[in-house]
């Protein structure tokens, strides 16, 4: 596979899928080969816009196409488990949009299946693979700000309070935690290199029963505390600060899609810019391709264990704030 074009199949040609396609177009040895959609017109339009060669009206047909080297899943949260399982059982490597599933039980089953079938699986947390995060990792590894003690972040946008929107629909696993909370939780995990030993959370719930705003505090075994807020109620600053005893690192807004970070030590600031080549999704796609070509089952940049730990924590937070989806009853 290393010497030929890498053919991607795509399930669910929507807004997020377009970001994937934009990034894919910047990778020389890869292409969007096939698109599958339950809406034939949407699938055809997406393929024509992005150079796709094949359009399928069933996911099964795409997954069974021998020319498809891997599948990117961009369907709604509640479909991730079923769609990913379909691919894994067909032996197709998967890059699936975050969150990988809606709860830890589903995530655990997918990981077990991927390992049992000897097939690559990666949750598409693109933030982990952005160029600026390599610079941040270097500062952390060098101890530039000394021992860490606090991480603080916001992820908030004011959205229309339309009950028919996916974001507010409990049947579609709506709310801020799964859509937004996966970022501060995952990034905190990445910064500290541990899973939290305890947490606390409070939320404001909508009339539909999902969270309009969630604030959490994570306590790590090494003493670091991460505090975060995700919100549909306000347009927040949306940056992340990592504080150490000697200074801080600021990941500028929007931190989950950042191209800029500042290191501040002893009143001296250095700001670094690391622009993305396309929309930013291209780096996680390249990582998936690298791993698949190397015969790996997971990426060291976002391991199965890390994905599962994040989902387990989000399960616990949902329990704490009283959010349970109807299909989980």
Chart the SSEs and their pairings.
Elements: E1 6-11, H1 15-24, E2 30-36, H2 40-50, E3 54-56, H3 59-63, E4 70-73, H4 77-89, E5 94-97, H5 104-117, E6 121-124, H6 131-141, E7 148-156, H7 176-192, E8 198-205, E9 211-219, E10 225-231, E11 240-244, E12 247-251, E13 260-265, E14 268-273, H8 282-293, H9 304-321
Helix pairs in contact: 4-5, 5-9, 7-9
Overview of this protein structure:
The protein has nine helices and 14 strands. Helix 7 (176-192) packs across helix 9 (304-321). The chain has helices at residues 15-24, 40-50, 59-63, 77-89, 104-117, 131-141, 176-192, 282-293, 304-321; strands at residues 6-11, 30-36, 54-56, 70-73, 94-97, 121-124, 148-156, 198-205, 211-219, 225-231, 240-244, 247-251, 260-265, 268-273. 34% of the residues lie in helices and 25% in strands. The chain is globular, with a radius of gyration of 20 Å. Strand 2 (30-36), helix 2 (40-50) and strand 3 (54-56) form a beta-alpha-beta unit. The model has no long low-confidence stretch (mean pLDDT 96). It has two domains: 6-127, Rossmann fold (3-Layer(aba) Sandwich); 131-275, 2-Layer Sandwich (Dihydrodipicolinate Reductase, domain 2), CATH 3.30.360. The strands form two sheets. It has an eight-stranded mixed sheet with strand order 8-9-10-7-11-12-13-14. A six-stranded parallel sheet has the order 3-2-1-4-5-6, with helices on both faces. It is an alpha/beta fold.
């Amino acid at each position: 596979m290393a010497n030929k074009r890498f053919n991607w199949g795509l399930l669910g040609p929507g807004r997020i899928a377009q970001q994937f396609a934009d990034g894919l177009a910047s990778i020389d040895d890869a292409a969007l080969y096939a698109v599958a959609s339950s809406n034939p017109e949407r699938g055809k339009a997406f393929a024509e816009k992005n150079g796709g060669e094949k359009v399928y009206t069933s996911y099964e047909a795409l997954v069974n196409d021998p020319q498809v080297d891997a599948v990117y899943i961009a369907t709604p949260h509640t479909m991730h488990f079923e769609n990913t399982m379909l691919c894994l059982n067909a032996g197709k490597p998967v890059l699936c949009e975050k969150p990988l599933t809606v709860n830890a039980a589903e995530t655990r089953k997918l990981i077990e299946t991927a390992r049992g079938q000897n097939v690559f699986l990666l949750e598409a947390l693109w933030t982990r693979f952005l160029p600026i995060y390599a610079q941040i990792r270097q500062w952390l590894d060098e101890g530039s700000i000394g021992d860490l003690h606090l991480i603080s972040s916001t992820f908030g946008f004011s959205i229309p309070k339309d009950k028919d929107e996916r974001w507010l629909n409990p049947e579609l696993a709506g709310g801020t935690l799964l859509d937004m909370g996966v970022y501060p939780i995952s990034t905190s995990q990445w910064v500290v290199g541990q899973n939290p030993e305890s947490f606390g959370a409070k939320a404001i719930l909508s009339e539909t029963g999902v969270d309009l705003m969630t604030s959490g505090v994570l306590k790590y075994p090494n003493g670091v505390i991460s505090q975060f807020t995700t919100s549909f109620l306000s347009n927040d600053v949306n940056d992340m600060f990592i504080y150490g005893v000697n200074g801080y690192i600021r990941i500028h807004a929007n931190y989950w899609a950042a191209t800029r970070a500042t290191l501040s030590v002893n009143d001296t600031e250095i700001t670094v810019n690391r622009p993305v080549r396309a929309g930013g999704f291209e780096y996680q796609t390249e990582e998936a391709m690298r791993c698949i070509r190397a015969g790996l089952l997971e990426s060291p940049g976002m391991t199965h264990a890390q994905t599962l730990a994040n989902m387990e924590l989000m399960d616990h937070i949902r329990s704490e704030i009283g959010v349970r989806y109807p299909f989980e009853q």
